[in-house]
Specification:
Elements: E1 16-18, E2 21-23, E3 30-32, H1 33-36, E4 63-65, E5 69-70, E6 77-78, E7 83-84, E8 88-89, E9 98-102, E10 106-110, E11 115-117
Antiparallel strand pairs: 1-2, 2-3, 4-7, 4-11, 5-6, 8-9, 9-10
Protein name: PhnA protein
Domain Protein YjdM C-terminal: 49-117
Organism: Acetobacter orleanensis
Length: 118
């Protein structure tokens, strides 16, 4: 075990390597070797955020929601096929890595696995 590697999410010292990924057994976070040193968020070594089809997303892209999503704490639903313009990529600790404004609903965060690049 490499003792100087810590989980970027919870700072656990029990992280271990499994193939090309590092895994934290305490919080379940997985990250690659390339993103390990990119905690500052520089344009040089940051992790790529990909959509459901594997396309790389960038700030300002337009995406389409691929399935109906319930809005937590509300009776509203984001319908599949909804276009979202001008997304911002964030480093959400809870897996929500896209910040956006959805027409008719307002500002919210989405997971990249539920969108496709338009």
């Amino acid at each position: 075990m490499d003792s100087d590697v810590k989980c970027p999410k919870c700072s656990s010292t029990y992280a271990y390597q499994d193939g090309a990924l590092w895994i934290c057994p305490e919080c379940g976070h997985e990250w690659s070797q390339q993103t390990e040193g990119a905690q500052g968020g520089g344009a040089d070594g940051t992790a790529e955020i990909r959509d459901a089809n594997g396309n790389v997303l960038a700030d300002g892209d337009t995406v389409t929601v691929i399935k109906d999503l319930k809005v937590k704490g509300s009776s509203l639903v984001v319908k599949g096929g909804t276009k979202v313009k001008g997304i911002r990529l964030t480093d959400g600790g809870d897996g929500h890595d896209i910040a956006c404004k959805i027409p008719g609903i307002g500002a919210m965060n989405l997971k990249s696995e539920f969108v496709k690049k338009s």
